[in-house]
Amino acid sequence: MGLSLQDRAMLAGECGLAAQMAMRILERMRPIVGAQSFLDISAAHIDSALFQGDATLAYAERLAALGAQVVVPTTLNVSGVDEHGWRAWAVPPDWADKARRQMAAYQSMGCKPTWTCAPYQESQRPSLGDQVAWGESSAVVFANSVLGARTERYPDLMDICAAITGRVPAAGLHLDANRAGQVLLTLRGIPPALQASESFYGVLGHFVGKAVARRIPVIQGLEVCPTEDQLKALGAAAASSGAVALFHIVGVTPEARTESAALQGRRPLAEITVTLDKLRAARKELSTITGAALDLVVLGSPHFSLTEFQALVPLVEGHRRHPDVQFLITASRVVKAMAARAGYLAAIKQFGGTITVDTCILTTPMLPRSVKMLMTNSAKYAYYAPGLLGAQIVYGDLKDCVRSAICGHIVRDNTLWKS
Amino acid sequence: MEVIIQGRSLVPGTAEGIALVGTEPLSFWGGYDQHTGEIIDRRHALSGKNARHRILAIPGTRGSSTTTAVLLEAVHRGTAPAALLTVGADTFLSLAAIVADELFGSVLPVVALSQHDFALMKSGQHISIQPDGQVLIAD
After folding, report:
1. How confident is the model at residue A1 (pLDDT cuts 50, 70, 90)?
2. B43: chain A residues, CB-CB within 8 Å
3. What is the least distance, in Å, from the CA of A188 to any CA of chain B?
4. Which residues of A touch B72 (CB under 8 A)?
5. Which residue among A33, A50, A239 places its CB closest to the CB of B66?
6. Is the pLDDT of residue B63 over 80?
């Protein structure tokens, strides 16, 4: 136990000033997270490149000026601006300049310019048991829960320290014993048709995050096998309303072959029954709009996947959005290019849809003030838009979103949510 | 009446100010306006309250990993709380305070308390914090 020779060398400045600063920050964090030592990581995903103001830019440029280089394969999360497309929106030029400087600083450290909150949809994925350091709450929960890789919920500013040193404190979800489920949630009386529907997962995630806060949930009683997009939606929602970094679904996720495996043979700290009534209440919380007025439909938080593009095409084909409602998809450069190659983008363009890459409506000031009434199929957008944008929002499924964009006002099919 | 409690100093420093106490976790990203110090999570019980230069006591953070960046910006702009008190160690808030020290030499004390001690505090009380994690609460 204790620090390795390499850790000490970094702290002593023998591996350069950037590695020294990064290791010093990690060493100050080590007792706070309760670690005795550090362990190696095989990859990193960096949220720190997201421009938030002069301080995050100063941090990036300080590390870059000190000669920082990452020592493991490292992808980049969303940035503060769509590097090449920002002029089409209301982004102030000063913001764009600084955000692009911050992007350049992280690229100079050897990070891959993926600019996406869903790197698992395009880059090489970590495998079951791999130790990694990921930032971005929705990506962390996906890596831990769906892939079975091991990462703590790394905050901005720390993820890059891990990538520069290749080390993280040996604590938290990196260790077997800390990955046991703690709260057992049992679905009861939820119709299978609802369980199979897209909007169910954002609502379930929102409920779970609020119910468990920072504990690890084990969900049992699911009668359908959710898709990866649905698991992505569940995790992102639970990581917004709570601090969920790992969930287990019995019979679905890799560390939850059985209930006992998910709980590592222990008794749960708490048990919660998830009823239709509780989920209806959670669904209600995701919407702040009561009327029908609509300015913008926005999809893609976490970033839209290729299968989501595929599902969208038949819904928009042959239709045109209402002239008063904008239709926006946020995605990564790579997935947009894949969607273009698959022939999905023509129908979206004819529908009047636009695609923003590198960033999202929450992380760049792209929306003009006139855009006040939003609709989305993302529980994460629904959760954060009121606070971050001062906008109102309604949560629906993909079909609701497309129909509303065509009609020019909010329409939701509530059939599945009635008993 | 004065109460002295002993917390665990995560990021040491001295601070004093008026307490702003919340009983639910907060994401600073989407929840804290770095320009003003206002709590802007409209689903949070402290929504609309201003935490600038206050002793902000919350159980911890939740949600976005950008919370640290927002708090760092707030320290840089002078809109951060004077100190942070949490239930148990909160790594996000501690990290932001450590980087603020590394980058700007700014002092933002972070102290972890037990659930029992945390419950002794109320908004509006005068609180002072010592580098060893001692917290003095005065009505």
Report:
1. low
2. 285, 383, 386-387
3. 27
4. 52, 55-56, 59, 157
5. A50
6. no
The reply to whether A226 and A338 lie within a common domain is no
Instruction: Give the structural domain span for A243.
Output: 180-285
Domain-ending residue, one of A177, A210, A243:
A177
Q: Find the closest chain A residue to B42 by CA distance.
A: A387
- pLDDT greater than 80 at residue A373: yes
A34 CA: distance to closest CA in chain B (Å): 9
Neighbouring C-alpha atoms within 13 Å toward the C-beta of A88: 9
pLDDT tens, position by position, A307-328: 999 999 999 999 999 999 999 9
For residues A108 and A189, membership in a common domain is answered with no
Assigned domain for A99 exists: yes
How large is the greatest C-alpha to C-alpha distance in chain B, in angstroms?
A: 39
Look at residue A65 and tell me if it is in a domain: yes
Interatomic CA distance for residues B90 and A347, integer angstroms: 47
ipTM: 0.96
Same domain for A357 and A342: yes
Q: Which residue of B has its CA nearest to A171?
A: B91
In this structure, what CATH number is given to the domain that contains residue A343? 3.30.499.10
Q: What is the pLDDT of residues A379-413, one digit of tens each?
A: 999 999 998 899 999 999 999 999 999 999 999 99
Q: Best of A21, A54, A157, A207 to disrupt the B interface by mutation (most B CBs within 10 Å)?
A: A157
**pLDDT level of residue A194 (50, 70, 90 thresholds):** very high
Per-residue burial over B96-133, b if 16 or more Cβ lie within 10 Å, else e, is bbbbbbbbeebbbbbbbbeeebbeebeeebebbbbeeb
Mean pLDDT for the stretch of residues B18-43: 94
CA A66 → CA A19, A22, A133, B37, B50, distances in Å?
A: 9, 11, 22, 32, 37
Q: Which residues of A touch B73 (CB under 8 A)?
A: 52-56
Q: Which amino acid is at B132?
A: D
- pTM of the entire structure? 0.95
Residue A291, domain member (yes or no): no
CATH code, B36: 3.50.30.10
Torsion-angle region of residue B107: left (phi > 0), alpha (psi -120 to 50) or beta?
Answer: beta
Give residue B75's domain range.
2-138
